[in-house]
Write a structure and sequence with these properties.
Blueprint: H1 3-19, H2 21-57, E1 61-65, H3 82-93, E2 98-104, H4 106-116, H5 121-124, E3 137-142, H6 148-156, E4 161-165, H7 168-210, H8 212-220, H9 225-265, H10 274-300
Antiparallel strand pairs: 1-3, 1-4, 2-3
Helix pairs in contact: 1-9, 2-7, 2-9, 2-10, 7-10, 9-10
Organism: Symbiobacterium thermophilum
Subcellular location: Cell membrane
InterPro entries: ABC3_permease_C (IPR003838), FtsX (IPR004513), FtsX_ECD (IPR040690), FtsX_firmicutes-type (IPR058204)
Length: about 300
């Protein structure tokens, strides 16, 4: 199809939009409102996903190494040598699902307790050296929180590891919560996307219905289906794109002001920063508006081309 043909179709589309300015304005506003709701829900889903991922990233396995003071049978009531400790750490780091391993000696743990509670520092100083009742500890983060129980069992089975703890019940509740958040967010976005398609399709269909006689006349004088469809498809793309642009602008304006305020009021809440999400959301809305507008126009003409 020639460039001249597309240029003529674009002129016709712009002419039709100008001629039916009220209908075009209503269509654009309808698209804008629908996509605005979709954008708000999408931002909510993105932030819920961020919260879920942040919560999962806090999950870690805490392991206690054997010492002479521990009464587990596998510990033989003796302290591990430095070589044995390093061997355990190396073995854990080599596990395929392990992301990070941190070691905290019992002496460092005692010093942390003294710094955390200076009033008790003098008392805690009496537990230095061989009198230290604490255990050497290892902190392990996994690549996938779903694997935390499996990795914990493998670490527990290692010689020299007295005990592991990862908050089994808490992790189970967390996984159930994050799964519900992800499924709920995805379901809500898909539901709004379906509603957007219906709204846009009905809006374009009304515009086409208002010009059904014009379509019938063009068909009777020998115009091809695609020749008739082209201006309507371009008009639908323009209406969808402009409506999406309005929705994107309002969304960006609101989120840029709202996100920092929420982050300042609730510092521990992991809010997705505007720069990280608004660009992708804007491009997605513009593309969605253009594609849905074109498709809605294309299929809305079908019944009026049967002459």
């Amino acid at each position: 199809m020639s460039l001249r043909g597309w240029a003529a179709a674009l002129r016709d589309a712009l002419h039709n939009m100008a001629r039916g300015n009220l209908m075009s304005l209503a269509s654009m506003l309808s698209v804008a409102v629908t996509l605005l709701v979709l954008a708000v829900v999408a931002l909510l889903a993105v932030n819920l996903e961020q919260m879920a991922a942040s919560a999962e990233s806090q999950v870690e396995i805490k392991g206690y190494l054997c010492t002479a003071r521990r009464d587990e049978v596998k510990c033989d009531q003796r302290d591990l040598t430095e070589e044995e400790i390093q061997a355990i750490l190396s073995r854990i780091r080599s596990m395929p699902n392990v992301q990070e391993v941190t070691f905290l000696s019992r002496h460092e743990a005692l010093e942390q307790m003294k710094r955390a509670d200076p009033a008790q520092a003098a008392i805690l100083s009496g537990y230095e050296g061989d009198e230290n009742p604490l255990s050497d500890e290892i902190y392990v983060k996994v690549t996938d929180v779903q694997l935390v129980a499996e990795v914990a069992e493998q670490i527990q089975a290692m010689p020299g590891v007295a005990k592991v703890d990862y908050g089994k019940e808490i992790v189970a509740d967390l996984l159930a919560f994050t799964r519900a958040v992800r499924i709920g967010g995805l379901g809500l976005v898909l539901l709004l996307l379906f509603a957007t398609v219906l709204t846009l399709s009905n809006t374009i269909r009304l515009s086409v219905y208002a010009r059904r006689r014009e379509v019938s006349i063009m068909k009777l004088v020998g115009a091809t289906d695609w020749y008739i469809r082209r201006p309507f498809v371009l008009e639908g793309m323009l209406l969808g794109t402009v409506g999406a642009g309005l929705a994107s602008g309002v969304t960006a304006w609101g989120y840029i002001r709202l996100a920092p305020a929420i982050q300042q009021s609730i510092p521990f809440l992991p809010v997705v920063q505007p720069g990280a999400v608004l660009q992708d959301l804007t491009l997605a809305l513009l593309g969605l508006g253009a594609v849905l507008g074109a498709l809605a126009s294309y299929f809305s003409l079908h019944r009026y081309l049967k002459v």
